Amino acid sequence: MRLHAHACAFVLLCASSLPLAGCGSSSPAAAAADREAAIVVTAKGFEPKALTAKVGQPVTLVVTRKVERTCATEIVIKDYGIDQPLPLDQPVKVTFTPTKPGKVRFACGMDMIAGEIAVQ
Q: Most CB within 10 Å of its CB: which of 27, 32, 74, 116?
């Protein structure tokens, strides 16, 4: 049974150090295909600021900007050539597959507001 995206966001907010696998179904094949993490842009920046993922497993960030006055009007993941606009109150899906362990930084276009994904 697949969890609703809002349930995944709650799980990630409460336990962002856990692998994203908890947001999928109980079957291993479906879990690998359902790696979505909800991120909200607020006055505090990207929330949550820290996520985890696994090498070789696609990750989809669903980013929703909730504030007008922020420099985080786009999400940039330099390591993967991603630069995606974030329109106000519209969820934007950004998908990539981590290719090596370590930290993957995501930030606003000015690189002032940021977060990271710990890839294992």
A: 74
User: For residues 80 and 77, what is the distance between their CA atoms, to the nearest angstrom?
Assistant: 6
DSSP three-state, residue 38: strand
Strands 36-42 and 59-65: parallel
Secondary structure element (H or E) that encloses residue 85, with its range: strand 82-85
Q: What is the CATH topology of the domain spanning 5-119? A: Immunoglobulin-like (2.60.40)
Q: Which residues contact 43 (CB under 8 A, 6 or more apart)?
A: 67, 69, 70
Residue with tokens 């294992």: 120
pLDDT of residue 64: 98
Please state the rounded mean pLDDT for residues 41-60: 96
Neighbours of 88 (CB within 10 A): 12
pTM for the predicted model, two decimal places: 0.72
